[in-house]
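Methods, example record. To illustrate the input and output format used throughout this study, we show the complete record for LanC-like protein 3 homolog. The sequence lines were provided to the predictor; the line carrying structure tokens was produced by it.
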Amino acid sequence: MSVRCFQNPYNDVTDPRQPLVISPEFSMQQALECIQNCFKNCPPSPRTFDGCLYTGYIGIAWAALDITRHANVPSTVRSVLLGNAKHLVEAALRSVQEQSNARRMNKEDCLSILLGQPGIWITAVMLYQQLNDMEQRNRFLEAYVNLAPHFQPEVIFQQGSDEYFIGRAGYLAGVAVLRSYTGEQFIADSTIHSICDAILQSGVNYARAHRSPCPLMYAYYGTEYLGSGHGLIGILFALMLFPSYLRSNPAADQAVQQTLLYLISITSPQTGNLPCAMDEVGPQRQRPDSDILVHWCHGATGAIMAYARAYLLWKDERYLAECRRCAETVWQRGLLKKGPVIATGSVSAYLLTTFSVC
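The corresponding predicted structure is encoded as:
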């Protein structure tokens, strides 16, 4: 068993048709207790701002706003959550403005959904939409839309332009979130498709230049990552968020599906875990069993999101089978000692829930 995770002491479900025994009310109560604990222990400060959505306090605001959308949240609790979220969002916006005024923002700060100001803008849109302050909502929505031209050139960052943290995949994911949240298109499909084209061409060009066995391949800081955070499967997931693009481009549709099947083929039957990067592919190059990475950033925890999305799009049973294999890996190895955060913790429970509804 990996030294990175706690051993799972619970029995497997013997009947796959058995319903979940945890009630929505219990789950909501746990979520509320967790978010209140976050509010209490992570007040706005320069230290807790660092990392923005990924590791900063603005991610707590996002979580709170997501909770408030559920119908079974009492109105009084919803008001408290919105007030706390507003406090965090406005603190983050002030910090961004101070950095901008002092010219301390680099290109990554300006374009990264997880590590920079775009993630704060998305959270601000979510907040002001709920507060019915449409002037403020539209201000930050427009700011996010205006970033689109920056993601259309072939090269944005020398270290890699397509992954989730700072690249095109992250920007597209932000568009999908905002479309879902606002119920509005707000950005033309033609613009989205041009960014998807850039992702596809980048992957084709890299794969050809480096003689990759995979139809699409990308590198980040010289490493051909395969996971959701910096790698291939996160990029595929972003493309699959826009089915209209795949329907309008049969070559893209084929490339995405062939790439998914390639990733399934190189996943170890012993661990059921997607390798972290191409330099770990093959029996002689695998990580030792005690050190495999079952995170959102790397491995099965993030991969199941892409396979679930693929199954919903194409109804190919191979993707559903891979969801099962990933879910089993996460069930056995997904409770990590590193903590209950998106990359290494609570996301594992979310992904098991994702599989249960496929």
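Annotations derived from this record:
Residues 257 and 329 are 23 Å apart (CA to CA).
The two ends are 28 Å apart (CA to CA).
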